[in-house]
Specification:
By secondary structure, this protein is α+β, with helices and mostly antiparallel strands. It has four domains: 89 residues; 149 residues, Beta-Lactamase (2-Layer Sandwich); 101 residues, Beta-Lactamase, CATH 3.30.450.20; 208 residues, Alpha-Beta Plaits, CATH 3.30.70.1230. The protein contains 17 helices and 20 strands. The strands form four sheets. Strands 13, 14, 15, 16, 17, 18, 19 and 20 form an eight-stranded mixed sheet that branches. β4 and β5 form a beta hairpin. The chain is rod-shaped, with a radius of gyration of 54 Å. The termini are far apart. The N terminus is likely disordered.
């Protein structure tokens, strides 16, 4: 298994091993000389004076040198580990992971049982354990923290390192509850400082061994703390920047979403006229893509907006004023459109102009609706037009429904027209048609058409649904028409008095717009139109003649006289009814 990239690797000194080997050989020589000395003494002889002493001194010197080299090796390994952890702590890896590994290294090098990094929380200054590790290189769970808060607080407040070889006997801490209750012995605590401000502490302890930490361990931890403090502050700065960047990105996305959801088309351009922003509504309005027009000059990207628009645009650039105008450009993929346009300067922080914003509201559909409503006004009374809230819900494409049709024609108009000048004739006929129209509108009827001196009205169309009483409304309108003509006669000379003959029928018809794309007319196709006209042709001056179908729907309200008359050009009579008036209430 490969080693962790965070593990420190001790540096071996080959000279130390050689010295230890030589020292071992010298010790063996010393033992051999002692043996030879004993043998020679038995024979009355001895070794040269000082021989054993020189060998012993040589051995002792080698042992001292070996111990010195071992101590230097420990210190070298510690420095090597510190160098490695310094590189790790300033790497791009996650800070918590790096600090965990660093604490493992510190514990191993100092012989501590546990190690902690305690940081001040930003905003509250509360000391919170950020890293907690044990001798087995495991994270200590929060419920198992037994750090001496008194030692930690003292180091954090005074900004000075603390080292004790036996906390139980140290007068500074022997009375501290945490030291006593946790049976702490060796403690090492070093403040983390950034620009003389304590941001936390590094704490290590051992609950078993006393005399564990000395000056070298303190110096090692101080060196580590200097590196750790800088890394922690950098990490916090990076977290703050990352948080701010995330907020900026979130706000940018929010603004982009808001910008994209704006129904108006919005395009902005810099001082050179190059497009820098184009929202989704503008893309759809002009059938363009942002990628295609960004950084293009406005006149090149949107040439179809016309001279009036670009005159206004130049005015805004030159004077920092706001301009509003209505355009009717021919958009290549859409044809002619109607756009309400507002051009405003983009102000910088010093209130100078840095570009322009162009806002476009597409009025094309609105104008089409207005045209449709204007068309509807031809058929409905003003009151009914005002009651229409959703013109899009009116189905004008063709629908079969039962309607009642009133056909009114002026009697004797041909002979009458021969006696008058065209201007006077037009004035008189318009007065009679006005009476006819007012009567139809009075009962919420639709004017289907005018045919010379005749008018056709309809009830229960898509424009004026009247499911229950459309036949009665038609009859009432016809009766009102007769009464109003009589009233008109009171102010007209006898030679200008004319009468209506009126026919009414009820039945199924198909209703909708007919005509070309350029000219359409709402009308009905079916037998009620034809039958109402034939009934009208049988009517005498001032008569209202209704069909059997209509009579079936008004018999409870209207008094009638049964008639049998043939239609024009026919000999067989048809049953029809002449309206006499309203039935009297019993």
């Amino acid at each position: 298994m490969s080693s962790s990239p965070f593990e420190t690797h001790p540096v071996q000194n080959p000279n130390s091993d050689e010295i230890q080997y030589v020292s071992l050989l010298v010790a063996q020589v010393e033992d051999m000389l002692r043996t030879q000395r004993d043998i020679l003494q038995q024979r009355g002889m001895g070794l040269p004076p000082g021989t054993l002493k020189d060998v012993a001194e040589t051995r002792q010197g080698l042992e001292a040198l070996s111990a010195h080299l071992a101590a230097q090796q420990v210190e070298l390994n510690r420095l090597h580990a510190l160098a490695e952890t310094s590189a790790l702590i300033n790497s791009s890896l996650g800070l918590d992971e790096v600090l965990n590994r660093v604490m493992d290294t510190v514990i191993r090098l100092t012989g501590a049982e546990r190690g902690y990094i305690v940081l001040r929380e930003e905003g509250t200054s509360e000391l919170v354990v950020r890293v907690a590790r044990n001798l087995d290189q495991e994270t200590i769970q929060r419920g198992s923290f037994t750090v001496s808060r008194s030692v930690v607080n003292d180091a954090a407040e005074n900004g000075q390192p603390i080292v004790t070889t036996n906390a139980q006997a140290d007068p500074r801490f022997s009375n501290q509850e945490s030291v006593v209750s946790y049976s702490l012995r060796s403690i090492l605590c070093v403040p983390l400082k950034v620009k003389d401000e304590v941001i936390g502490v590094v704490y290590a302890d051992n609950r078993v061994r006393s005399g564990l930490f000395g000056q070298s361990e303190l110096e090692l931890l101080l060196a580590f703390a200097n590196q750790a403090a800088v890394a922690i502050e950098n990490a916090r700065l990076f977290e703050r920047v990352s948080t701010m960047l995330a907020e900026v990105i979130e706000n940018k996305e929010l603004l982009e979403n808001v910008f994209a959801s704006i129904a108006s088309g919005v395009i902005t351009a810099d001082m050179q006229g190059n497009i820098i922003i184009c929202n989704l509504a503008a893309e759809k309005m002009f059938d363009i893509t942002r990628e295609k027009i960004l950084q293009q000059r406005t006149a090149e990207a949107l040439p179809f907006l016309g001279e009036d628009f670009y005159t206004a645009l130049r005015q805004v650039y030159q004077t920092s004023s706001r301009e509003s105008l209505e355009l009717q450009p021919v958009i290549p993929s859409r044809g002619q459109a109607v756009l309400a346009t507002r051009i405003s300067p983009l102000k910088t922080h010093d209130q100078s102009i840095g570009g322009v914003t162009m806002v476009f509201d597409d009025l094309t559909e609105m104008r089409r609706r207005e045209e449709t409503l204007a068309e509807v006004r031809r058929y409905l009374s003003p009151e009914m037009v005002e009651n229409i809230r959703m013109i899009d819900t009116i189905e004008l494409g063709g629908e079969e429904r039962e309607i009642s049709v009133i056909f009114a024609d002026v009697r004797g108009f041909t002979q009458f027209s021969e006696r008058l000048q065209p201007e006077e004739l037009m004035m008189i006929i318009n007065r009679y048609l006005g009476v006819c129209s007012d009567a139809i509108h009075l009962y919420d009827g639709v004017i289907d058409k005018y045919m010379g001196d005749a008018a056709v009205g309809m009830y229960n169309t898509q424009l004026n649904p009247q499911e229950d009483d459309h036949a009665l409304r038609a009859v009432r309108a016809a009766m009102s028409m007769i009464y109003d003509v009589q009233a008109l006669h009171e102010i007209l000379p006898p030679e200008l008095r004319l009468w209506y003959g009126i026919g009414i029928d009820t039945g199924l018809a198909v209703l909708g717009n007919v005509g070309s794309a350029a000219r359409k007319e709402f009308t009905a196709l079916g037998s009620p139109i034809i039958h109402a006209r034939k009934l009208q042709e049988t009517a005498e001056r001032g008569e209202i003649v209704i069909s059997e179908a209509t009579y079936d729907r008004v018999r409870d309200k209207i008094e009638v006289e049964r008639l049998e008359r043939p239609f024009r050009g026919e000999e067989v009579p048809h049953i029809m009814y002449k309206v006499l008036g309203f039935k009297r209430k019993q």
